[in-house]
Amino acid sequence: MKAVKVGLLGLGVVGGGTWKVLTNNADEIQRRAGRRIEVVGVAVRDVQKAQGLVGDSAYVTQDGMRVVRDPDIDVVVEVIGGETLAREWIMEAIAQGKHVVTANKALLARHGNEIFAAAEAKGVTVAFEAAVAGGIPAIKAIREGLAANQIQWVAGIINGTSNFILSEMRSRGQSFHEALAEAQLLGYAEADPTFDVEGVDAAHKLTLLASIAFGIPVQFNKTHTEGISHLAREDIAHAERLGYRIKLLAITRRSERGIELRVHPTLIPTERLLANVEGAMNAVLVSGDAVGPTLYYGQGAGELPTASAVVADLVDVARAFDVDPAHRVPHLGFQPESMVDIPILSMDDVVSSYYLRLRVEDRPGVLADLARILADADISIGSMFQEPHGDNDADIIFLSHEAREGNVEDALRKIQYLPFVKSKVTRLRMEHLL
Ligand code: NDP
Ligand code: HSE
């Protein structure tokens, strides 16, 4: 059968890995795909460096449009990142009737609806396994393996950089900045690492997971996003003592009231598998009504793991090359005319458990006043811990039962202004993942 000809936009961490996997595993990939998959054109900024890697087997150019418009090329792999050129080149590739494989979650989170609509109109595939959780086939698992289910919720550790930082801070006592520098050296971090540490990258990925889980449009702008850069080391230590680990968790859940879309540091009981996902590893926990909870674990970033997902998408494209577009797996797992626009819940309406820490004057009546405000807001206290601080103060930690977040925020506003409260109240969410 005729080989599938690939144009590679970018030959950095992911593009270089894709080249290596396609080269090293060419025979095995052909046995699976039924055709050879050959890179024939590459676009980069540094032509000389790239030509050194690919040799004579492909041309190298700075002009991505040349690759995208090359009539010999069947599939364009976009791994340059960013939202400007990547979007132009992908839209042009689709217009040219070429299939697209991309690892660019930032682009899909913001422009996915437009890109998928254009691809459907043109009858081509836009595959994006590498955009979520790197080498873990989470997209394929939810979209195809769990197709029988009504998905109830998805909770994931889907940013390797922030998980690496939290693990290093907890286990090796590294500072936030030391751990971030190491993650950057290892090639995990985004070009702009604030995307990693402020939860933006995880939110990009979560919006894609929510779309394939619930058949809803991609809605990055409605995702609540909090990162780990302001997390205090003492909260990591307190959580550990209380039997929890703090993870940057990306959660989407369907309820009768709407869909939750949220990324934030979260206390998880230490005995949960997710709490033990360490370093740059990722894990995605998916609960379906028929199957129950299922867990997908693996490397969420880096050269070869991410390339593994890119190449798997290429194999899918190669296998379905001559298939009528109507018989391919839909981009988001649901037939386009069956997508629904379920409202996204505001954070005030989300129900969770909470970890609250504050410093107070250690004198009679303090605890009673705090408990009264929490009770008036319908917040039930699960447990409470107190530690003396100096001669006159104490640090208090409350772990609440489930409460509506809007009520918690109202109560905290009142607590914050009490005369005996001597610190800003730290509020972290807790999830039991059952
Ligand atoms: P890199 O920065 O390592 O590589 C980017 C590549 O794109 C380089 O080869 C660069 O060329 C090329 N490039 C950039 N701008 C241009 C341009 N204007 N014209 C031509 N070529 C250009 O990025 P990554 O490989 O890390 O990331 C690529 C994408 O994959 C991003 O969307 C990222 O979010 C995503 N991703 C990354 C993962 C990872 O672990 N790194 C994991 C999952 C997804 P040159 O080499 O000449 O500089
Ligand atoms: N910067 C991302 C991470 C790369 O750390 O997980 C993988 O998407």
UniProtKB/TrEMBL annotation:
The active site is at K205 (proton donor). L-homoserine binds at E190. Pathway: Amino-acid biosynthesis; L-threonine biosynthesis; L-threonine from L-aspartate: step 3/5; Amino-acid biosynthesis; L-methionine biosynthesis via de novo pathway; L-homoserine from L-aspartate: step 3/3. The keyword Disulfide bond does not apply. Its cofactor is a metal cation. Transmembrane segments: none annotated. One of its GO terms (biological process) is methionine biosynthetic process. Signal peptide: none annotated. SUPFAM superfamilies: ACT-like (SSF55021), Glyceraldehyde-3-phosphate dehydrogenase-like, C-terminal domain (SSF55347), NAD(P)-binding Rossmann-fold domains (SSF51735). Its EC number is 1.1.1.3. InterPro entries: ACT-like_dom_sf (IPR045865), ACT_dom (IPR002912), Asp/hSer_DH_NAD-bd (IPR005106), HDH (IPR016204), HDH_cat (IPR001342), HDH_CS (IPR019811), NAD(P)-bd_dom_sf (IPR036291). Keywords: Amino-acid biosynthesis, Metal-binding, Methionine biosynthesis, NAD, NADP, Oxidoreductase, Threonine biosynthesis. NADP(+) binds at L9, G10, L11, G12, V13, V14, G15, G16. NADPH binds at K105. Belongs to the homoserine dehydrogenase family. This is Homoserine dehydrogenase. It comes from Pusillimonas noertemannii.
